[in-house]
Amino acid sequence: MKSSVVAFIIASFVGLSAAVDNRLLYQIPKGTNIDLFKTQFTSLCQKWPTCDNSLTFSNIIYQPGDFQGKNNQTEVKIACSYMDTDGTIVTFTKEIAEGLGAIPL
């Protein structure tokens, strides 16, 4: 019984350490709005690595506001993720966001 409890605790810690938050915080470009930036970011993310067929689209995260829930019209937490053939997550968030004129915070 004791060993199964220890194994459960270890497995719980391993699971927690495996979770990675790839979101980055950006200020959207001047002259755009939160909805337009979402459309642009999402569109580019879904077709970004056009020259690398070994990557498979994984997910897009788009959450208006900063990490405290403020600035919902000017800042956004975003991630654009793909997976390589080994199962490693590869992100293109920085390239896409900055290519659209967003400013990292």
TrEMBL record:
Keywords: Signal
Signal peptide: 1-19
Signal as UniProt keyword: yes
Name recorded for this polypeptide: Uncharacterized protein
Species, as recorded: Tetrapyrgos nigripes
